[in-house]
Amino acid sequence: MRCLYLNSPAMVAGMRSCLAAEGLDLTEEIAKGSLILTSDRSHLTDGKFEVNKMINLLHATLQQALADGYTALWATGDMTWEFGNKSNLDKLLDYERKLEEFMQKNLSLCGICQYHRDTLPPPAIEVGLHTHKAMYINDTLSRLNPDYTLAVN
Fold it and tell me: Cα separation of 126 and 131, whole Å?
């Protein structure tokens, strides 16, 4: 499985430090292509989040992982960072619907959307609660989400 971590430069640096402290050989994993740590924002146009660009980026990254011989792509990103400096969160529900539909059609993609209560407005957290089947509260606590309502056909 290839792993993709999308976040700010500071968080990517922090993740590198944490993984190295856990004994992961970052140089080897990155060179093999099994780990991608990035703060790339090519899914933004003039600082604004573009839903289809993000879905296309995930699709291309998944296809490349499969072409490289990986069985799946596991991706995670901080929603605050992904949505750009314009905080264009009005596209959030559209993105989550399209992402859920894409993931249902591409079972080799899995991951976690990071919604941080201290950086996102309450309406964004509300969207996250209604569009995700499971919640991961911290590194040891997860549960099925009783607020999940999004159904994609």
Answer: 9
